[in-house]
Amino acid sequence: MTGPVRREGTRDRRPARRRLRESYLAAAVPVIACLAVLCGLTAWTATGAAGTPPRIAVDDGRVLLPSAGEEDTSAFFRITNLGGAEDELVAVTSPAVERAVPVRDRSGTGTGAAAPDTAGPVRVPAGGAVDMSPLGTGPTVRVKVKAGERWQAGQVVPFVLHFRHGKPVGTLAIAIRPGS
């Protein structure tokens, strides 16, 4: 007989070592892939490329004085999104108004609404701004009419703008005469 002598009931260790090595290799592939993805995501977020949630700032609020005998008027704001994700203005409220239709697009371009002069949300792009105006986008509000009391030019009116993803933002609008 040539070759190693085996005792009865013992096995050769080479196949067990081979199975162990193959098991380690099989387990190493998904572990290395997960580590590579984790490192890539960490680098992506560390550089700021992953974005940030919307951060909304509202200023330059104006509300038109209602015409004589009218209760409906328009309000306008400058909305700035300092965050890395877009958001939408979905509602406008105020203790000084009975109701507010969220947004009207009077420009005819459909910006912020499905069709001209219809209600709908206003898209506020990431890192961008929306300037509302009488000829473009802005909420229509119905003024609360108290006996013998009317808004005056320069009066400050509080508003709260509600966004789809961000927190509500309180702001003030100054009542102005149309055309000023």
UniProtKB/TrEMBL annotation:
Cross-referenced InterPro entries: LpqE-like, Lxx211020-like, PCuAC_sf
SUPFAM superfamilies with a match to the protein in the record: DR1885-like metal-binding protein
UniProt xrefs under Pfam families: PCuAC (PF04314)
Name listed for the protein in its UniProt record: Uncharacterized protein
Organism lineage string: Bacteria, Bacillati, Actinomycetota, Actinomycetes, Kitasatosporales
